[in-house]
Write a structure and sequence with these properties.
With 119 residues, the protein is mainly alpha-helical. The chain has 4 helices and 3 strands; from the N terminus they run H-E-H-H-E-E-H. The chain has a 3-stranded antiparallel sheet with strand order 1-3-2. Helix 1 packs across helix 3, helix 1 packs across helix 4 and helix 2 packs across helix 3. The longest helix has 26 residues.
């Protein structure tokens, strides 16, 4: 199954969860998402998600000087982001339960059709 479309729907909550655990700069967040098992995540998708979450008031930023390179913009989660994360966590858990129950359900036995009395 191509997980690209599934990932688009849950990238916000994944990014919020990673930043909740520890502040990070863009590529660091990408790396942590990949380390968590989301190998097919694109850098551009994460950077776009960070900008969107920042604009929505879920994240704040601060700059840290970097040795041997440009300054790094770090993202940290705000109270609004924690609220978003909790709401999305509840939504995800409900969604995942419904779909897990649906796709893991044992198939119903096929009805037995009697040929007696058939014309």
């Amino acid at each position: 199954m191509d997980t690209t479309q599934l990932l688009k729907g849950v990238l916000d909550v994944a990014v919020l969860a990673v930043v909740r655990d520890e502040d990070g700069y863009g590529y660091d967040i990408v790396r942590r998402l990949r380390a968590a098992g989301i190998a097919e995540i694109g850098d551009a998708s994460v950077y776009g998600t960070l900008r969107r979450l920042y604009a929505a008031g879920a994240l704040s930023t601060y700059v840290v000087p970097s040795e041997g390179g440009p300054n790094r913009k770090y993202y940290s989660i705000k109270a609004e982001g924690l609220v978003m994360l909790e709401e999305q966590r509840e939504t995800w858990n409900g969604f995942a339960t419904v779909f897990s129950d649906l796709i893991n359900k044992e198939p119903a036995a096929a009805p037995v059709v009697s040929r007696e009395g058939a014309n």
